[in-house]
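Request: Have a read of the protein record below and say how the chain folds.
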Amino acid sequence: MLYRFYTIFGTACCFFLRVLIPLLRNRGGRLGYNLDERFGYYQLKKTYFSSGAARIWIHAASVGEIQVAVNLIDELERRGQNRFFLTVMTEQGRRIADNKLAGRATCVMAPIDVPSVVRRALAFIRPDVFVCVETELWPVLLTEIHRAGIAMALTNGRISDRSFRRYRRIKGLMQPLLEGFSTVSVIRAEDGNRFSALGVPAERILVCGNSKYSYPPRDGNLVRKQYRQRLGLEDATVFICGSTRTGEEELLIPVYEQLRKKSTNRLVWIVAPRHLQRLPALSALFGRYGMETTLLSTCKEACSTDILIVDSMGELADLYAAGDFNFCGGSLVEKGGHNIMEVVRWGRPVYFGPFMDDFRDAVAQVVPGGAGFQVTDAEQLTELLSIHLANEELYNRACRAAGELSSRQCGALRQQAEMIGKLIAGQSARN
């Protein structure tokens, strides 16, 4: 009954949306972005339909899930797969996916969750396997894919406390949706228990960790050297604050000022706001403090200013390699934190505040192992960074811990790729 009501309501909304298409296109913005794709009209390259490897449809909602998808595609390519179709939910996600996967995957907007639209999308894509990243559970999409007999896998599954309470209230809707997954890879045992409580058979659940934190092998020293040479930072101490949110930079300014006083080297502060629309506000903020800044995109050579603002998306993850003291934002203010493993992967310790609700699993890995440090406020952050700045052995110990933790992250990605490989083999056998 719930599913029927959902489809009727969605179809009605879709009808009115189609009537408004000319207006939305003229206005532009988020609602008017790539409407043809949202209605399931895709322009696919002929090579996508050529015979050979299986067609793998990966659905990733936004930026965080896209990184999981990129990691997974990297690993599947190493195993001989080469035809990927990635759907995303946001304009920002689409642009990042295009940038990261250019020439390797067809990246488009996900279809609106209405039966006629989803069926149209399926007729275009014709996937052999569907992979849902994390818990992006769209009822019509999952139902139609299951009815079409397409093998389904869920990777990096996680269910928060709040989501679990909500899903339990609609278990009658959730159970049929989850039944379509042949296998469900979850991050924690607790996530597995929650999926089981919602109706997924225990034998289909695999606890293998978070593949978002699995990264393809790269020469961290080389990436670090390239950035530091490009920006003229070879002899500098670099303090990076990534994915910062509104109100956070003002808390961090005193931290930078104190570190600058205590550092025997030039101290360069790199600030990467989570949302680029905040760039004018940041410039105004630093201006009020009399602090001169430079946009990273303008630094084609060594920059003369000591404060750089990152003004492009998708660069921060690699930029962390150039840092000595890397703070992960969204954590001194109540925004749930951000991906601290992006720092740890480079063999550098990560520093973050008390608000890390969205990455508790990562916190549970980095803090006990000495690869990361959680502080209660900006004052404690200043104190901790000052200690590490003065005590090279203590800092190097944290770097070693980060490197060891990073090397252990590859298992989750390998297991998920093997899981998908088995589904592909099963589909091939049936065909």
